[in-house]
Specification:
The chain is mainly α. The chain contains 20 helices and no strands. Helix 1 runs antiparallel to helix 2 and helix 7 packs antiparallel against helix 8. The radius of gyration is 24 Å and the shape is globular.
């Protein structure tokens, strides 16, 4: 970082017009590297300054040689990095501007040679990045358009280089992304199809290289994603099978490297998903219950990983809530403390950026579980949080948001909104035995 700061100060004092082409190329590359270093440290102000400096240098170079494809490619990289920093800072309008510039440049490269696998994949990446930004900006229609194009381009690249395993891995990842966007759009059956395809694609590679740890890693996440997709359409038994497939692969990976916090952490999060699927299906005998809280305590947040981030804290606090709820018990002191920390951190994040929907959903769900244990403070907060969740659901097809809004509407007595929310949720194909039970209990009538 110290070297990067010195480099940034040095290049800031140079005039691009006074530099040779070679010096400009070196400077642009150096500034991208400087920006990357700051970006990995979440130092976004410094990263943005470096990437914008690189962008300025790349524009100067391309003006001197407008037909140079290498220079055009470098300009695209700088546009991407400026857009990526804006995305990380939740500045979506700026992110869309620069990611669109990156897409336009990638399209120009593709049109110059559509048989060049690198250019095909560059355009694929550009569509994927725009899909991510649009999804974060709640424009699911645009996100879907870009992600479908990304998958199509990835398949084009595989047709050009059928033996390239990297491209197959990328296709699996692209299909998983598509499944996520389809889920947010309320297209749950399509999401399940994409998730299964993602798992099958990576499975073809694992069959030929069963001991490859990277493929085991990707397969674990593919099974977990398929499990989640299955759970949303009410196939709890199949979801549990998928989650256990994921857990078995995480176990194998943890045995390879017990110090890998990510694998240990994500194994537990997958176990949490399995427990929730079991709770929804009203399955009482799940052996993972017994060890789960003790395993959670073995992964205390550290300064060396992101386990302590608000989202991670919330996900695992939520898992504690599910476990206690399944066992019909009050929350142990350690669980209550964890939930208190998670909720406090989530409150801080949501005050600064209320559009963090994943955090908002975990936050809302934990409050409901805590309120069930007769926690007065949680019960007092339900009307305020419920109002926010119901308002957010008005223009959404996201089944996670709609189902949470229904639970809050029932809990805080806004029964007149349950019918409309339920009809919109039913259109997505979402099914949850637990939600049906809550609706029946809350309205006094059976909900089909």
């Amino acid at each position: 970082t110290a070297a990067a700061d010195k480099a940034q100060d040095y290049f800031a004092n140079l005039s691009p017009r006074d530099m040779s082409d070679a010096a400009l190329r070196s400077s642009g590359k150096a500034m991208r590297q400087v920006g990357f270093i700051h970006n990995t440290q979440f130092e976004y102000e410094q990263a943005l300054a470096a990437f914008e400096a690189a962008l300025k240098l790349d524009h100067e170079l391309l003006a001197r040689a407008p037909d140079d494809t290498d220079l055009l490619f470098n300009l695209g990289q700088s546009e991407f990095w400026v857009g990526n920093v804006a995305y990380e800072r939740n500045e979506y309008s700026l992110a869309i501007e620069h990611m669109t510039n990156y897409l336009d440049i990638s399209q120009r490269l593709y049109e110059q040679d559509a048989t060049n696998v690198d250019w095909v994949m560059e355009l694929c990446y550009a569509h994927t990045n725009l899909a991510a930004v649009h999804e974060a900006n709640a424009d699911v229609t645009s996100a879907m358009t870009h992600m479908n194009r990304s998958v199509s381009l990835n398949r084009e690249a595989i047709a050009l280089a059928p033996g390239d395993t990297y491209l197959v891995r990328e296709l699996s990842d692209s299909l998983a992304w598509l499944g996520t966007i389809q889920r947010t759009a309320g297209q749950l059956q399509a999401s399940l199809v994409s998730r299964k395809a993602s798992r099958e694609v990576i499975g073809t590679l694992l069959d030929s290289e069963p001991d490859d740890a990277t493929l085991q890693d990707l397969t674990a996440y593919a099974w977990r994603g398929e499990g989640f997709a299955l759970s949303l359409v009410g196939h709890a038994d199949e979801a549990i099978v998928a989650y256990r497939e994921a857990i078995s692969r995480f176990d194998r990976l943890v045995n390879l490297d017990p110090s890998n916090v990510r694998w240990r952490r994500d194994r537990l999060q997958t176990t949490a998903s399995l427990l929730e699927a079991a709770a929804v299906a009203n399955l009482d005998e799940i052996e993972e219950d017994e060890r789960f809280l003790d395993q959670l305590d073995s992964l205390a947040p550290t300064a060396n990983d992101d386990f302590g981030s608000p989202l991670r804290q919330l996900a695992l606090a939520h898992a504690r809530a599910v476990t206690a709820h399944r066992n019909n018990s009050r929350f142990p002191e350690r669980s209550a403390k964890q939930m208190e920390i998670a909720l406090r951190e989530a409150d801080a994040v949501l005050r600064e950026n209320p559009d963090q929907i994943e955090i908002a959903l975990h936050h809302a769900d934990i409050l409901l579980y805590i309120a069930d244990s007769d926690n007065e403070l949680a019960s007092e907060r339900l009307p305020t949080v419920g109002k926010v969740m119901i308002e957010r659901s008005q223009d959404s097809s996201d089944p996670l948001l709609l189902s949470t809004a229904i639970r809050y509407a029932l809990r805080i007595g806004r029964h007149e909104e349950v019918t409309d929310l339920s009809e919109r949720l039913r259109a997505t194909g979402f099914h949850s035995a637990r939600l049906d039970h809550e609706k029946s209990r809350g309205t006094g009538m059976e909900i089909n």
